[in-house]
Amino acid sequence: MMQKRYEISDDRLLTPVLAVDPEIVAANIDRMVGIVGGRHDRLWPHMKTHKTREVLDMLAARGIRRTKCSTLAEVELAAMAGVHEILLARQPSHQDLHWLTEFARLVPEVRFSFVCDNLQHFESLLQSSPPEADSTTPGIFIDIDTGMGRTGISPGEAATRLAEAIVRQNRFPFRGLHVYDGHISNGDYQERKEAFLTAIGPLKQWISELETMG
After folding, report:
1. How far apart, in whole angstroms, are the C-alpha atoms of residue 133 and residue 173?
2. pLDDT tens-digit series, residues 174-211
3. Distance CA 169, CA 132 (A)
4. 133, 171 Cβ separation under 8 angstroms
5. Is residue 144 within 8 Å of residue 159, measured between CB atoms?
6. CA torsion sign, 203 to 115 to 87 to 104?
7. What strand order describes the sheet that includes 139-144?
8. What is the pLDDT of residues 107-162, one digit of tens each?
9. Cis previous bond, 16, omega within 30
10. What phi-psi label fits residue 104: left (phi over 0), alpha (psi between -120 and 50 degrees) or beta?
11. What stretch of H or E contains 180?
């Protein structure tokens, strides 16, 4: 397929420079909303793909007011932009968590969360966290690996022990599971769907086991 070319003619620009076509971004957002049937609550886009206040504003204008972040700078920008719910989609260090907890108190109208994928790190975070949660305390998602092999814990016994430890404590509200199948990028839809179903199978079985355990 022939790619459309874009040219910018402006002698005032100092290069290299970031150039964004708002019409293309708007069309991509509309397509994303259309894919989920207009259900804005099903969308949780990642800010690392744009890192800009302007795109956050465009998303908010279409009813999308939550975002995932990779850095604390992104978290701060998203909160200042009026995002309602922010997930730090990586495992925080002790210093990260301290900053996130203190920052959350400054913007109590925003709901913050982070991910965790192993019991040892979770237990170490407990040792340096406030004794009990309050209304601003960041919540926690268990980061699940469905085959990408980059971050996350595989569904199974170790993940169950982590889930049990999170449910037993009262310092971080348990928000659920964070699942990212970023390794599935087949161009053909049917192949992509089959790969997804294969990857998600063990997770669905594990979730059933968790529900049986209560």
Report:
1. 7
2. 999 999 988 999 889 999 999 999 999 999 999 999 99
3. 9
4. yes
5. yes
6. positive
7. 66-69, 85-88, 111-116, 139-144, 174-179
8. 999 999 999 999 999 999 998 777 778 899 999 999 999 998 889 999 999 999 99
9. yes
10. alpha
11. none
